[in-house]
Amino acid sequence: QVQLVESGGGLVQAGDSLRLTCAASGRTFSSYVKGWFRQAPGKEREFVAAISWNGGSTNYADSVKGRFTISRDNAKNTVYLQMNSLKPDDTAVYYCAVSSLEYVSATRSLYDYWGQGTQVTVSS
User: Fold this and answer.
1) 50: Cβ–Cβ under 8 A, 6 or more apart, which residues?
2) CA–CA distance, 14 with 84 (Å, rounded to integer)
3) What's the rounded Cα separation, in Å, for the pair 8 and 17?
């Protein structure tokens, strides 16, 4: 059974940093695109970042460019999201996702597997 488990969320103050981790089990995703999405209360789930299978290509939402960094460790079947200079607007549940695409995508429907999410709350 495929599982994606996110961790690393929490309550922080504006300007702080957090590192989210998503560990996959049940299947190796070394050749898959991996991404992060987030959903704030009352809003639709939105794209945050994605990374190609070898890390050679990344894509970020404009709202997080320059502050967030996505990376992956295929040996550990894991993807990370380093979040710096956090803002209250970053408050959301963060989800990792995996896609069988050969290119990075911001389209939610193109991702095949999803984690359960981890809460990130940024206070002002």
Assistant:
1) 33, 34, 35, 36, 58, 59, 70, 99, 104, 105, 106
2) 10
3) 11
Q: How many secondary structure helices (H) and strands (E) does the chain include?
A: 0, 11
| Pair 32, 14: CB distance under 8 Å | no
Instruction: Give pLDDT tens digits for 79-98.
Output: 999 999 999 999 999 999 99
Closest CA to 4 of 99, 86, 71, 70: 99
Query: Which of helix, strand or coil describes residue 53?
Result: coil
Listing DSSP states for 10-47 in one string gives EEEETT--EEEEEEEESS--TTSEEEEEEE-TTS--EE
Whose CA is closest to 110, among 121, 120, 98? 98
pLDDT value of position 102: 86
According to DSSP, the β-strands at 118-123 and 10-13 are parallel
